[in-house]
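To the team - zinc ion complex, inputs and output below.
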Amino acid sequence: MKIYKNDAHLKHQSRLELVPGKFIPTLDVRERTGAILETLQRAGGAQVIDCAPATMQDLLCIHSQDYLDFLSTAWKEWSMAFSPELDGVGFVWPHRNRPARCPVAIEGRIAYYMFDGVSTITPDMWSATLGAAGAALQAASDLKYFGTRGLVLARPPGHHASKDMGGGTSYTNHTALAAQTLTAGGARVAILDIDAHHGNGAQDIFWARDDVLTVSIHTDPAVDYPYFSGYADEIGEGSGEGFNLNIPVPPGTRWPDYSQALAAAVEKLRGFAPDYLVVALGADAHVDDPAGRIHLQTEDFRLIGREIAALEIPHMFLLEGGYGLDVIGECVRNVVAPGN
Ligand SMILES: [Zn+2]
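Output:
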């Protein structure tokens, strides 16, 4: 299998993230991709491809110019206004009962564009996210023009980034960029997001589109991150109505119930009959993951992989969440190579 990566992310590391009740060391550590790569290389057959970074121009097909301008200059502005010893993070978020308004102060703009306290502005987050986006672009291009089935070792994750907002340690949306790339020439594309948290970014980006189906299985947002999206009644609108499927499951869900959610996803995917499938491969639905609350076992990921393979749709995988360094390698390997 081809493994697409860009090592710019190795410099990127948030210092702290804000979770309920405390600041903790960030879960999106640089060692995540190495742990997965080591497992895949041990299994044999892994061909690693170092990819060029994406450009801002490449990202304009899914993100707004003002958001990308913000991301590209946010660290410089933050470090000058405050301190290069501190990561940039908001502390007052937009109010629900007021029209959206973007402040001038950098700490206000960070809160305007980054919807949580998890996604800090760091010196290297912009180059890291361009690197991951570049790997996604190349993998999508290779799938489209050469039929290559690959895995993008993207870091930071991207599936929480919408058109003009970041969150969940996501800055730009690599899965959406791959899907958008695959739509060239009128192709129909589906995204299956199996990360433990709602893929709110792709939902937002493709909300009113009928050429990209977005399907996400995740913990019920009524009781888990990202809280404000991922509900079953979010189905898209306009020509996109019926082309977004959210399948929330309760915390603690194990394979017997998860398999039913997956069957519903598979049925939707078969009905859409896409030309291509992009799998947003979060491995944080594992029982031992420090961020996820779904209780899958390592071998359950093999069953997910078999279901995806049985669809017989040309597809690619892209790493999203998954923070248990002892288990993510096996989980990812079981999805991408379920027969091994
Ligand atoms: Zn997640």
